[in-house]
Each structure stands twice: as structure tokens, then as C-alpha cells.
């Protein structure tokens, strides 16, 4: 059982994709309000962590446990994990033409409110909320009418992810390489969006390959993930150290795990 | 030969006074024709029992029927009830004319191979000829209404002639009450640099039997954009032919079908690239539920001289029940060597990645499936150029789709 004061508790997690072991004993405890950065080389299992926690098909948990707010996360359906407060901002958000962004957001927010026993929002209330969220991430309101991520640029997709996070008000946000493919201006918008959502009740896992995002989103802890487990943890200064040294020092033996996207 | 066809021929024989050569030729062809069976390629998956058994009659008197209203749009209405032309627009914009007369275009765009097209040649009493004068852009939409009362049989025919540089928007709207039978054929000549925006709504279901076609001939730099939306019924068959007669012409065809119960819907789309430098884009999407059967045949024929043709045909289908059936057959016949041509036909379940994405936002799996299935066809509705029509048809399709889910 996890500590009362722990939001997320990952214990000795082993997981595989297509029968290939990716996570090999991951341990991580996150308390409410904390921001944890997970860094590491390609193929270390960074994206896999997000997929396993969110319950993606094809990501098999072999052993270990994960609890969110004391509940067994691994037993839940994908949507129930989201309703329990988990949010994954994708590195490559999916385009869904034909489903309007607004409709999608409304259904998502309604589903979560219903699961939490809250009253449904009226269309007008929701529209107002959605427009405000749009403004906060610098997306034109007209984007609400378009298909989900349809024809959005890379940066627009990332901002759309952050907008969803703002509307869904999760307890734990996993940002999967949200900085990839963004220029400095776009990254700042994303970082501002994230920072505006920081609160004593909300925790973040910021997965990134580069240190630069962490200049904008200041982490409380930095972990280095290599070959499926955390090999080093520290405070924000560890990120600087990694920036200077790279990940070469980790590679005592070559990993063949280049499976990750 | 079927009894139904014999009756049709007998009727044509009795009214053939005044047929021009073209209709007389069609009658001669019909008298020799073999009634389609399962062995007839063009009708392989579409049995004609519903026609053979139809008791729909030619009514002496028909009730007054009005076409459905579409919010935000006021059409120029060309309305047929039980095959008889009952109303024409009182006032026409300048440069647009509608006349009831023999047209030299009659039967020149619709290919002879369509058996029900031949039936229509000889049984469509009132042939309407719509002409848009050179360079005239008609803003108001023309709607051709094919309304059928209970148990009625009716055959309608419209010929549309867009002169060079003209522009027209046409909606073909079919509404049939129970147990009706209709053939509805339209022919469009799209002149040099002319532009046609076209819709064909075939939203009758139940025991309606409807066979028809929309046929287009495009001249140099002509542009057409067509959307066909159909529900199934006892028998619903649409043939389209897109024929390029001038270079650098461009056609886009989107079609949606949504079938339930024991319905049958059959779309045969044929494209003749007879000249170089033309572009075709076809997006055909369907959902078949319950015991229904969808048939799609998409032929693109690129003739030997049709170099630099660009043609894409995409047919995607979703099956909602294991008893539903989709028969899809893309046919590319390419005789030119410098063309870009792509086709694909899929019968699939829902996109798993999109499903997962929606679920990670808290949307239940079943609701996500619903959203994605609807989105799959809604994407084509979104592409309809006239927004008012999209807004009108979207809830109709959504309702039908919601009903399908319950079963």
C-alpha cells in the first residue's frame, strides 16, 4: 500500500511491448504538487512509461504495481484511469477528422464530471470555458470547430494537448516529450500553460530528452531513466549536469532497445 | 425477361408517339435486352427481386406533396410527383432556363449500358432541360425533387446544360412514401470552364425501390464537385458516370452510405479518362449494420491518350454487425503510361490509435467508438461546399446512426 501522502506510486514495474522487455524495475513515488522530470536516452523507456500508465493496448505489465491515490491503476480501463485523474499529453497527438474538437472536449469533460459525480455543464458554460482555454494557449477559437488535431501544425497539436489538460483538470499530468519539434516561442507558450496549472494538488511528470524545457518548467526532482529503470535522481541541477555531459556516461553496455518512437 | 420489364415496354409502346430517334433506339435496345441476374457482373450482388415484385403503379391522380425544407436555403424547385412535373420555379434568374422539350443532349451523356437508364429513356414522360447561359453564375441552388406517393411508380429525367464559363448548384432530392418505385436519371454537360456543385440525396428507406443515375460530361477546365448520400432500402441503386471530354477538367466525388436492417444500397461509379491532364478524386465511405448489404463498384478507365491523368479512388467501409455485408470492387483500367493513379478499398474496424486517444481523455470505449464511426462519415459531410446542406443532413445521419447503435 502506498503512503497516504503519495499521489502516484510505481513499484518495481516491469513491462514489455511485443514480448520485448522495456521497463525493468521502475520505481517512482510522486507526492501531490510535485514536478518530476524524467530524462534519458532514446529507447530507455520514457514514452513506454506514459503508455503503460495510461493503459495502452499492447503494453503488457509483467510485474510490479502502480497506484494512483491509493487505487490500483493497472486494473482500470483506459478511460477510468483518465477519470481517476491521469492525463497523458502525447508526443504525437492523433488526428481525428470528422470529430470536432469542441464535441470531443465536451464529451471528455462531461464523462469525467459524471464519473466524479459532478453536474454536467451546459453547452454555453462549456463553450465559455473552452474559449478561455483556447486563449490561454494561443489557439484561435476557430480551432474548436475543426476536427481533432486535423491539419494542426506540430506546435498547435501540443497546445491542444495542454488545452485539454486545462479543461480536464487532472491530478497527474504526464507530458511526453511535449517540447519535441517546438521552437522557443511555442515551447514558452506550452510551458506557460503548464505552469498556470501547477498547484499543490496537481503533480507532473515531464518526460523530455533535452534540458531546455526544464528552464521553463522547473522540476522539483530529476530522474534519469536508462534501460528501463531509474539510474539516478536529483534536483533540478541534475538536468544541467546531463546537458553538459550527455547520456554517454550511462552506456556502460550498448542497449539494443531502440524500440521506442 | 421479367414481367416488370415487359410491362414497361408495353407502356412505352403505347406512348411512343413523338419519341425522337434517341428514345426509339432505347426502346429497340430494351426489347432485346437480357434481364440482369446474379451472373450479370453489374448486378452480381444486387438482386432485382424488389423490382420484379413491385406492385407500384402509374397513378392517374397524385396527392400534393411538398419537398422537405432546408433551413437557410431557398431553392429554385423543380418538382416531380409520381413522375409528373408538377412545379417549376415561377421566376428564374437571368441566364437560367428550364424547358420541357427534346434536347439534343438527351441520352448522349448517360451510357447505354444502364438497363434502367433505357427504361427511363422510354418511360420518363416529362424531360426537363435546364440550361445555364454562357458565363452566367447562378447563385441560388436548383433542387430537383423526385417525390413519390404511396405505392406509386414514377420516372424522371433531367438534362442540364452548363454553357462555357457558367456555374450552377444542383440538389437531386428523392423522397418516396411506402412501396414506391422510381427511376431517376440526370445528365449534366459541363462546358468549358463551367462549374457544377452537385448533390444527390437518396434518403428513402423501407420498401422504396429506387434505381437511377447521375451522369456527367466535362469539357476543358470544367470543374465538378458531387456529394452522394444514400440510405439503403429494399433496393437502392445509383450509377454515376464521369466522362472527360476536354483537358484539365477536374471532378471530385464524395459518397456516403449508411445502411440498417435488411437494406441494400449499391453505388456504381465509373470514370472515363478519355483525354489527358484531368483529375479525379473519389472518396466513398459507408457503414453497414444489422443484416444490410452495401455494394460499391468504382471503375476508373484511363484511355491510351489520357496522359498526365491524376486519379484517386478511396473506398472505406465499417461493418457494425457480423451479418452485414460489404461488396467493394475498385477497378482501375490504365492504358496510358504517364499517369498517377491510386486506389484503395478497406473494410475495417475502428482506428485503434484514435480510440485509445479518446479513451485517455475519459471518453468511454463505447462512446468513443460511436464518435469515431460517425466522424468517419462526418468528415465527408464537413467537405460539402454548401454549409446549410451539411447542417441539414448531419442530424439526419446522426439520428439514423444512433438508431443503428441500439440494435
TrEMBL record, chain A:
It comes from the Bacteria. The keyword Nucleotide-binding applies. It holds the Pfam family ABC_tran. SUPFAM superfamilies: P-loop containing nucleoside triphosphate hydrolases. PROSITE patterns: ABC_TRANSPORTER_2 (PS50893). GO terms for molecular function: ATP binding; ATP hydrolysis activity. Keywords: ATP-binding, Nucleotide-binding. Residues 8-252 form the ABC transporter domain. The keyword Phosphoprotein does not apply. Belongs to the ABC transporter superfamily. Ycf16 family. This is Iron-regulated ABC transporter ATPase subunit SufC.
TrEMBL record, chain B:
Residues 154-376 form the SUF system FeS cluster assembly SufBD core domain. It comes from the Bacteria. Pfam families: SUFBD_core. PANTHER family: PROTEIN ABCI7, CHLOROPLASTIC (PTHR43575). This is Fe-S cluster assembly protein SufD. It comes from Marinomonas ostreistagni. The gene is sufD.
